[in-house]
Each structure stands twice: as C-alpha cells, then as structure tokens.
Amino acid sequence: MLDSFALLRFFQKESGYAPVKAVLEDAQAGRACAMLNVINMGEVIYTVQRRFGQQAKMDVLKHINLLDIVILPAPNDLVFRAAELKARYAMSFADTFALASALEHNATIVTGDPEFRQVEQLVRILWV
Hints:
The strands form 2 sheets. This protein has a two-stranded parallel sheet with strand order 1-2. It has a two-stranded parallel ribbon with strand order 3-4. It has a single domain, classed as 3-Layer(aba) Sandwich (Rossmann fold), CATH 3.40.50. The protein is mostly helical and 128 residues long. It has 6 helices and 4 strands.
C-alpha cells in the first residue's frame, strides 16, 4: 500500500526513492501488487500541482497509470473505518485511508511519514 509520502519521494527522486522504485518494479514484474487509495492519489495530485504546476501533475498521473498501480476506491465502509482510525490516532485523515486500506488488504504500507510510527503495531510498514 503506497502512501503519498512514498510516491512523492519516488517522483522527486528524493531520499527513500530506491525502495519505492524496487516495490514498483516488483509490481510491474508481477511479484507484488502496488496499491494506492484514491484519497492518497488525491494528495499526490494536489501536492505536485501546488509545488510544480499543472504539467507536472499531468505527467505524474500518466506515470501512475504506466506503473500499474491499483487505485483503490473509497466506499462508505472504508470512510467509516478511516474515520474510526482518525478518532483513535493523531494522523491526517488521508493517512488513515492508507492505513484502513492496508488493514483491509493485509498489505504493507510503504511510507516515510512519521505519523505511521504510532500504528506500527497494527500493520507492517516498509520505511523509506
């Protein structure tokens, strides 16, 4: 389960880029499934547009599609689980969608966001 933090590191080739690249290569080779909740995709979109402009946003969206990342929806039951997690943990609401999705799919969260430290007992985390 990719968090926006990990994807932004990957697209900007910042520290933590290599492990994210390895996860995406595994997904493209069929050795793993790279997932991203649509709410976290929204975070990537607005962050890239705000920092780098409209064209960069379009380029990132194109790359997400080319990387075979499975975009997960945010149905009502997931929204309710994310809200419950938000009530219990001091995390951004968007981060609780990544967490709820990871729990639902028994997936490892790929992130470097320190907000996830408080939920390490709930889910596997690949720190980047």
